[in-house]
Amino acid sequence: MASLPAVAVFLTALLSGSAYAATAYIDPDLTPSLPTVDPISYVDTSRTEYDRIVLNVDGEPFFYNGVQLRIDKMKNIWNMTDAQISPFFQRVANDGFTVVNSQITWWDIQPDTYYNATESTYIRGGSYATTNYADEASHAIGYDASDDSQQELTYLKFDFTAYTQDQIDAAKVRVYVNAAPDGDVAFSANLYGITNNTWSADTLTWSNAPNHDGIQIQGTNGTDYWLTASSPSWDPINEASYYDFDASAFIVNHCPDGIASFILQPQMNDTAVTNGVTLDGVRGTHPPELWLSSSDSWTFDHVDNVLDWAGAAGLKMEFIWFGSDTTSATEDFRVPYFVYRHVLVQKVQSDGTVVPVMLKNQGYGQGVYWYLTDKNDLALRALEKTALKTLLNHVAVYNAANGDLKTLVGVDVANENSVTHIHGVGDTVYHNPLTWGAYANFSSQAAFVARTEWEYSVNLANGVKESDYPVWTRLNTFTTAEEKSIDYNEAQRLTTGTSLDFVGLDPYSTSTSALYAYGHETVAIGGSNENWASGSNLPMVMENSGATSSAESLLMASLAGGAFYNVYEYMGPDNYGLYYPKSTSTRDFTPVARSSYVADVVATNKLLKALSLDLSAKLPAGAGGTRLVYFNPFSNSTLDQRSIGDFTVSYSPASTGGVGIGILRSDQTLLLASTRNSTVTIAGLSTYGISAVEYGYYTSAGNFVANGTVTYTSTSAGLTVAVLQDQLVHIETKTAFTLP
């Protein structure tokens, strides 16, 4: 148990560490925040009561053995219902994990609202001037300078009178182009908003449609119509896909009655014989949509559901915040649209023009538009911090109303993020004067990027620490991440302090030796060459594949070397899971173990959980500890000899996959466990007299309850014990020995 008050321990954690201070700033007003209430969880870096950096939950050391459950992808890609997802939390708990981490997106708590078009049609000139096309599922826009019959405009009408928010910050119209453009020639379109809402799709023709004169828009610009958006150069209409047009100003300023009408017009190109595309109308498979976005819109139903599911399973939980940057992209199905109205990272093209960096997908499962918002847009920083703080404030209300379970214990504030590279793709980044104004104060772009990354992460961590429900904060990086952040964070820990508790890597490694080293020394792993245990950083393997037969060995090697461990993932569309669904085609999502190794992972998880009191608070010998030893940590031998205290221990598992654990619990108590049947000899222990050798379990208070005795041999050479797989063997001596 902690001997310092929670806030005092947090202060100690914040101010301890090693490295150097920043000499240049982007936001000079940014300072790391401290909790104003006792934290639910924190990282105790003091090493006063314990010999390791300790995760503390509700005042007690906590053993972290986690798995990620991608409920966002279960919903978005597999279209699973809440009823299908919720049982997985109990499955995670049944498999012995102590923590589950799942995504909470900015969209989850500030969702946009969309409305399908209520009416749509297109009109066509020439010999088709009196033809009505309202019954057609597909509409057209097109232009041929030499043939009026090949000129088309599409009309759209939306009714958003049901929208309940007083404030609209952004709006867009999304259309689905259902085939490649004429002649596979890319072109652009214009979206005009018109004030005339009296037209009816059922009667509209080229001859009677309002606000057009041929292909041109007619009326008084700024009174009858407004150009709301045009296809940008970086997003031409060149294939079947969704296309977005910003309509914010028109919706906010010119649609007071909640009805909006638009004309979609092809941009004229006199050199093209034909220039047009077809798109889905209201009767099409993907009807036109109007999206409304408000920074004043909040909902926490999904958050409450997730906390309900985890709490009912007896699990602790981390939120993985999917905000303005997830896997180095700002993805339109994870953020509300008003986020895109802020500064975007731009690239300099070979011709010198500057355009936003962008990736585009074909469907809703992974989002359509991926941009990358600029992390030095201070207005956006403020919005995102408010969102995260509001989320945690809600969790405080939820927790008080639901038994004070303290289910949520941590927040990953950013996932595999980047400053200038969108999803790992590097470009010549444009030094936008709006957000790169402080660049001249830095020695290099790398230094500017490092500061940007740190300020961005700490701003979000501040939102957590300032909330009514402060918990630990972490940041995970990946091979393609631009800045590993750990060195900079440790530099700041000593000087200005930091609200970002620890930084970790997603190594996706199958090397037991590398993961063992990860917990205590510099190691080349996951595209990095870092010491993830430097300063006061808690080493954690934040994502490592569950779809590998060595999953159990990788877990044990990481723990033996001093790191905590998190599996990616339990089951999900990314196919890294310990499990896969029985049949997605028939929507049978019953989890099927990937192979027999999963049973070993589950059994070992349960063994580790039974030892959690010691594993949470003792530093393993592999990282310099003296009272906790892992034998055969690389799972590669049938005989391993190591010291624990003054005793030399020989560990002989029945198979090379066995890993043993030895714990000095007191000056008369030694605990043994093994992941496989094994024989263990402790040299010199017999000289202290053997009082009892029993198997059993420990209560939550740390008291041993015996289930039976264990056969042993005691000679002057030592004590030899047969330790069965996943059994806890408790050895008591008659006299005390010396503890290290």
Which runs of at least 5 residues are low in confidence (pLDDT < 50)?
A: 1-21
CATH architectural designation of the largest domain: Alpha-Beta Barrel
CATH topology of the largest domain: TIM Barrel
Shape: elongated
Q: How much helical structure, as a percent, in the residues?
A: 10-25%
Strand content: 25-35%
Question: Care to describe what's here?
Answer:
This protein has 14 helices and 44 strands. The chain has three domains: 6-110 and 300-327 and 380-416 and 453-613, Alpha-Beta Barrel (TIM Barrel), CATH 3.20.20; 113-293, Jelly Rolls; 626-733, Chondroitinase Ac, Chain A, domain 3 (Sandwich). A hairpin with a 2-residue loop joins strand 35 (640-644) and strand 36. It is found in: Secreted. It comes from Aspergillus violaceofuscus (strain CBS 115571).
Can you lay out the helices and strands and say which pair or pack?
Layout: H1 6-15, E1 41-44, E2 54-57, E3 60-61, E4 65-68, H2 71-76, H3 82-85, H4 87-94, E5 99-105, H5 106-109, E6 113-116, E7 119-124, E8 138-143, E9 152-159, E10 170-177, E11 189-194, E12 212-213, E13 216-217, E14 225-230, E15 241-246, H6 248-254, E16 259-266, E17 275-280, E18 289-293, H7 301-312, E19 316-322, E20 330-331, E21 346-348, E22 354-356, E23 359-360, E24 369-371, H8 378-401, E25 408-415, H9 445-465, E26 472-477, H10 486-494, E27 502-505, H11 512-518, E28 523-525, E29 528-530, E30 540-545, H12 551-561, E31 564-568, E32 579-583, E33 588-593, H13 597-610, H14 612-615, E34 628-631, E35 640-644, E36 647-653, E37 660-666, E38 669-674, E39 678-683, E40 690-698, E41 704-709, E42 712-715, E43 718-723, E44 729-733
Parallel strand pairs: 4-5, 4-31, 5-19, 19-25, 25-26, 26-27, 30-31
Antiparallel strand pairs: 1-2, 2-3, 6-18, 7-9, 8-17, 9-16, 10-15, 10-18, 11-14, 11-16, 12-13, 20-24, 21-22, 23-24, 28-29, 32-33, 34-37, 35-36, 36-39, 37-38, 38-44, 39-43, 40-41, 40-44, 42-43
Helix pairs in contact: 8-9, 11-12
